[in-house]
Amino acid sequence: MSLLVLAYPQIEKKDFEWIQSFRAKHDGRYYNLFNPHFTSVFPVFDVSEADFIKHVEMISKKFNEFYFVLRCAQIVKDSFSDYTDVLLIPEEGHRIFVKLHDAFYTNLLEPQLRLDIPFIPHMTIANNLDAVKCKKLADEINSKNIEIVGAVNKLDIVVYDKVSSKTIKEIYLKK
Predict the structure, then answer these.
(1) Mean pLDDT, the chain, as a whole number?
(2) 2-172 has which fold?
(3) Which residue in 18, 2, 13, 19 sits closest to 123, CA to CA?
(4) What is the reported pTM?
(5) Per-domain residue ranges for the chain?
(6) φ/ψ bin of 167: left (φ > 0), alpha (ψ from -120 to 50), beta (otherwise)
(7) Residue 173's pLDDT is what?
């Protein structure tokens, strides 16, 4: 069992449906576990649930809700498996995702920070063992000049065990 912090963004229905239909075809690993999201804290295993929630609540108070725009897909080799992922990367809002991530990895979570893996704010929409297939998917998306505008107004603390996920706390950001 691990704990994560996810941001399930507010996006237009047509964009959500496009992302979900793409994920249904190409995201066999996470499609059934999570809706489209940005990860702010990656799986944490050795921190108590109560301490984790307290830490996330404290840090979250420092952030306002914010907007982002997704215009680009990029492929990245997964650091923990043989898969390659196709990510939608926020062009606008990028710095706030980075600042939020970095703020969470202080104090209680500082020992959890992986300095050997760069943090790239993203929404995973596909993955495959064949990196060339992922590159073709990213190229296909990028040829369409997508523009998905959204907002992050809350963060979900999620319990995850690789076969299921459950939100245990929602934390709303300041307006």
Answers:
(1) 97
(2) Cyclic Phosphodiesterase; Chain: A, (3.90.1140)
(3) 19
(4) 0.94
(5) 2-172
(6) beta
(7) 98
What average pLDDT does this structure show over 2-28? Answer: 98
Is the CB of residue 170 less than 8 Å from the CB of residue 155? yes
Give yes or no for a contact between 170 and 154, defined as CB atoms under 8 angstroms apart: yes
Give every CB contact of residue 100 below 8 A, 6+ residues apart in sequence: 40, 59, 63
Instruction: Assess contact for 171 and 60: CB atoms under 8 A.
Output: yes
- Per-position DSSP letters for the chain, written without gaps between them: -EEEEEE--EE-HHHHHHHHHHHHHH-TTTTTT--S-EEEEEEE-SS-HHHHHHHHHHHHTT-B-EEEEEEEEEEEE-TTSS-EEEEEEEEESHHHHHHHHHHHTSGGGGGG--TTS-----EEEEEES-HHHHHHHHHHHHTTT--EEEEE-EEEEEEE-SS-EEEEEEEEPB-
Region 120-144: mean pLDDT is 98
pLDDT digits (tens, 9 = 90+) for 35-93: 999 999 999 999 999 999 999 999 999 999 999 999 999 999 998 899 999 999 999 99
